[in-house]
């Protein structure tokens, strides 16, 4: 970032571009950078539930399946969907172990909750994922009191399937606890990208084809449920025209898979700067040749090239300074 033509900020990161076989196709920085996956993991955390036929067992809609993968804004549509998932599982929001926070839509709207306005776990951005956790436990007769514990049968199944999806040994996944209290895992960027290349390939995947097809199709069909009004994943998947499966994660992680190309990239901005993350993601797609003129126009706001102050004056610029390399 420059201000008045003078360098002001620099944001460092890495990106890995891989195909469905996990072969590295392009990179910048360290493509095997070890990073926590954060919310990009959600679609893969849903695999045990999908593999067990959970959505059909409970009568989940495609919107509900999209919610399994969501970091939503807590808008009415999201809260109602989480409620519907719980009702189909015969449970209430009190079984959710994700905690509660002020819905994201307040921050996006630039306002604060009204005095006395209260929220519960359904408004948590991870409530869809946790509702899926609850449904899995109900379906299999597992305890609901500790479903987020690392040694719970659900979490053991998730760790197993995540490892299979990204091509790793489960013991090599580095464990941590996410903001919603569920286990999360760190892995090389190249492995995370592998999982999304396979997810985007859908039914073509030999191991998780049906599950990946349902998850990716739901995400692409309902990107508003995956994120929310004015959010990045909504804008990216709409611009992708049905081809891109995207998910952002906290602290500077983003993954984008192309269904038609059988490729995906995973990107990490080390200092977690969101404008830099989104701008870098668009630049990666530009350098990969994924963008047409319409998509460039739609994604121009996410490049955030111009720094505009409160009076509308151009005060600085944001520039990509990396070039993808081939192995």
The major pleated sheet works out as:
5 strands, antiparallel
Number of helices: 14
- Uncertain stretches of 5 or more adjacent residues: none
- Structural class computed from helices and strand pairing: alpha+beta
Rounded radius of gyration (Å): 19 Å
CATH-derived architecture: 3-Layer(aba) Sandwich
Count of DSSP strands: 12
Beta content: 15-25%
N-to-C terminal Cα separation, in Å? 29 Å
Search tags:
4-stranded antiparallel sheet, 14 helices, 12 strands
Please characterize this protein's 3D structure.
The chain is an alpha+beta fold and 327 residues long. It has one domain: 3-Layer(aba) Sandwich (Beta-lactamase), CATH 3.40.710. Helices cover 41% and strands 17% of the residues. It is built from 14 helices and 12 strands. The strands form 3 sheets. Strands 4-3-10-9-8 form a 5-stranded antiparallel sheet, with helices on both faces. A 4-stranded antiparallel sheet has the order 2-1-12-11, with no helix packed on it. It has a 3-stranded antiparallel sheet with strand order 5-7-6. Helix 4 (62-68) packs across helix 7 (127-140).
Please outline what is shown here:
With 327 residues, this protein is α+β, with helices and mostly antiparallel strands. It has helices at 42-45, 47-51, 54-58, 62-68, 76-88, 104-109, 127-140, 153-166, 189-201, 209-221, 223-226, 232-240, 274-288, 293-303; strands spanning 2-3, 6-7, 13-19, 24-28, 34-36, 174-177, 183-188, 244-249, 253-258, 263-269, 306-308, 314-317.
